[in-house]
Amino acid sequence: MPSLTEIDLGAKVVAKLTRRLLPFLFLLYIVAYLDRINVGFAALQMKGQLGFSDEVYGLGAGIFFAGYFFFQVPSNLALARVGARKWIAVIMVVWGIISASMIFVGSPRGFYFLRFLLGAAEAGFFPGMILYLRSWFPSAARARAIALFMTAAPLAGVIGGPISGLLLGVHGAHLMGWQWLFLIEGLPAVLLGGVVLAYLTDRPEIATWLTEEERSWLVGQLAHEEKPHPRASSHAFAAFASARVWILVVVYLGETTAAYGIGLWLPSLLRSVSGTSNFVVGLLSAIPYLVTMVAMVLVGTHSDRRRERKWHLAGSAFACAIGLGCAAYSTSTTADVVFLSVTLMAAFSMNGPFWATTTEMLSGTSAAAGIALINSFGNLGGFLGPYTIGLVRTWTGSFRGGLLTVGALLAVSGVLALLAYGKGPPPTHSPTP
Q: What is the pLDDT of residues 112-122, one digit of tens each?
């Protein structure tokens, strides 16, 4: 049983980690997520100007995740080898340049090519951040840390919606509004890549901003948690042979199908119902992301406090499926905003409990491969969601069929989450700080 002094020290260390690391990583993820979804706002203008159908746009929006899929595992293994500081800096500069290069798109083939390259360049960022948080935060504080970090994704929507709507109205220097959008929103990744080199610390053992006592406690705590348990392996590719890991892949596939399917079609969904201007659509699109930020933190914190993952995850999946079903039949702007808010809120709220337990299942080198495996296969939903919705709309002229299809997948994810966690999450060895 830990002493009161040890509990106080643990709480102090976690608080310092939260202040030092999360705000900066939060900023990086805002930039990453905005570069990933800003094509949804650009589509309001570029589809008409370039003559792209809904199917072409849906394929181009989703093909980002094909590049993401093929390059994620090697990228995360490279990060584990060379360190987060150098690797994250490099990939941020590369993806920022590619994102800004979207201004040169003039054909479907060019659109597909650059979106694929963007996904390949950004492939190592998110799983690298999960691995990085795992290497700093004790397991008892990890779901909340991950949830706080991942609120950057909906915040990118809150910030990016109005800004992107305004940028669509900018014209000059032979560039249209959608081109200015890609150029201006791609540059921060390049600039922040340099800041990463100066600010991030690769591992706790060399963190000069921790006192010797704090550093000793953190290193010891993480080493204690690293001891393998029956469901964990230190072999780099042990995760590939785990049936439970593949069930989690499907669970995560449902989450990403909904999150990106709705996120990348959100401006068009709202425009189809409201018929308002680009700027107003940008403002309306910020509402679902705003409520999602609050829900993510509440669900992640509650999951940590109760030490329960299964129902937090499955319940969020079922709520998302219900929200999609209601959104499919809504006919007013208010109802659409409400149901789409429920959908995004529930989908994103799956992330905290999902990744907290996933990182507890894996140890040693297998963590890098396992996290990347789940994220790469699971993120194929980022291709499946946008393309399915676009394809069904091209066939039927309506969003309804696509939304119902995605909702059905979320219901399956909820059932599989109950099965995967049927015996409870693997044991954690740390006291709650």
A: 999 999 999 99
Which among 80, 66, 85 is positioned nearest to 123, based on CA atoms? 66
Give the rounded distance of the alpha carbon of 5 from its chain centre.
Answer: 36
What ranges in 172-242 are assigned the alpha helix state H? Answer: 177-199, 212-225
281 contacts 164 by C-beta, under 8 angstroms: no
Q: How many CB atoms lie within 10 A of CB 341?
A: 19
Going 236 to 245 to 92 to 71, the CA torsion angle's sign is positive
- CATH classification of the domain holding 155: 1.20.1250.20
In the 8-state DSSP scheme, what is residue 139?
G
pLDDT of 198-257, one tens digit each? Answer: 999 999 999 999 999 999 999 999 888 876 544 444 555 566 767 777 888 899 999 999
Q: Please state, in angstroms and rounded to a whole number, the distance separating the CA atoms of residues 115 and 110.
A: 9
Asked if the structure places residue 11 within a domain, the reply is: no
**Residues 79/124, Cβ–Cβ less than 8 Å:** yes
Per-residue burial over 372-407, b = 16 or more CB atoms within 10 Å of its CB, e = otherwise: bbbbbbbbbbbbbbbbbbbbbbeeeeebbbbbbbbb
Q: Which domain holds residue 188?
A: 20-213+238-420
Considering the entire predicted model, what is its pTM? 0.78
The two tokens of residue 295 are: 């829900």
Burial class (CB in 10 A: 0-12, 13-18, 19+), 42: buried
